[in-house]
Amino acid sequence: MGTKLIIDTDPGVDDAFAIALAALSDDVDLLGVTTVFGNVPLTATTRNARRVLALCKRDDVPVAAGAARPLVHPQPREARPVHGSDGLSGRSAALPEPARELEPTDAVTLLASLLEAADEPVTIAPIGPLTNIAALLAAHPALADRIGRLVIMGGGLAGGNTTAAAEFNVWSDPEAAHRVLAGGEVPCTLVPLDLTHRCAVDAAWLGRLAASGPVGAALDALTPDYLAHYSRTLGFEGIVVHDAVAVAEAIRPGILRTVPAPVRVECSAGPGRGATIADRRPQAQKADTDGLTGGPFTQVAVDTDLEGLREFLLGRLAGRPA
Known about the structure:
Blueprint lengths: L2 E7 L3 H11 L4 E8 L6 H14 L7 E3 L14 H4 L23 H11 L4 E5 L4 H9 L7 E7 L14 H5 L1 H10 L4 E4 L1 H4 L4 E2 H8 L3 H7 L3 H11 L3 E2 L2 H10 L4 E6 L1 E3 L10 E3 L4 H5 L10 E7 L1 H12 L5
Protein name: Nucleoside hydrolase
Pfam family, one: IU_nuc_hydro
GO molecular function: purine nucleosidase activity
C-alpha cells in the first residue's frame, strides 16, 4: 500500500468528498476515520462518515467518535446553512447503512492504538475542528514521533468565511488549533481558504463526477444545499471542496506548493477570535521587529496546478487506478 492515512473529520459535504477520495485511492492505506463536532453535531458527523465509507464499500475501515464540543468555550454555531440540516444537504439517509459497527472506544483511543500499531509514520488529515488532535497530543505525547505530519484544512491568511477574521474549523475551537499549530510536537501542513477557494469546481466538473458511476452520482447528489450556498458566494455554479484539497496533499505530497511560516491562532474573545496569523515577512524584517520569529514553522499551502488538481480529484473519485 501507499500512504498510511487517518482522517479526522466532521462531515459536511466537502468532508464526504475527502473521505471518498482517500477510500477510493488504491495507493492509500486508510487506517481509520475519527469524527468530531463541527458542521453538525457529533452524532450526525459520525453517521455521515460511516455512510460515506459504506458507499465506497470500505467497511474494513474503523470509525470512532470523538469530541462533541470544543476544549474550552461552547461552539457558537454550526454550519447547517452551508451543509444542510444533516450535514449532507438533507440526503444522508440516501447513503447505504454501514455493516461495521462504530468502534466502542473514543477517537483519541483509536488514534493512539492505530499509531502504536503502525510500522511507519502515519499521516493524519484533520479536516474539522482540531479538538481530537489537541487531545491526542496532550494525552499521548510519546506518540508524536509516530505521526509523519498533520495535513490540516483550516484557517485563512487573508480573512475568514465564518467571521471576517476566522475560518470555520479553526474558529470552532481556536484553543485546540493554537495548541496543534503552535505546539511544535508534529510537522504541520496547513491548507487555508486562500488556496481552497481557488480550487473550486464548477457545474461541468460535477456533471462529469455524476456521470462517472454510482459512487460519483451519489456524491454529486449530496451537494444541492452546498451548491446553492457556494453558487452565491463564488458568483458561478460550483462548490469549494476545501477538505478534499487537503486530503489530496496528504495522498500525494507536493501536489500543493507550500511555504514555511510560523502560524499562531488568535484565542481572545474579540472580533479576531479564530484568526490564523502566518508571519510570512522576510526573515531580516522579522528579526528586527516582534515577529513570530521563533519556531515551530508550519508549511502553508499557497499554490497548485489548479486544473491538474481538479483532474486528480475527479479521477480518484471516479475510481480510476492511481
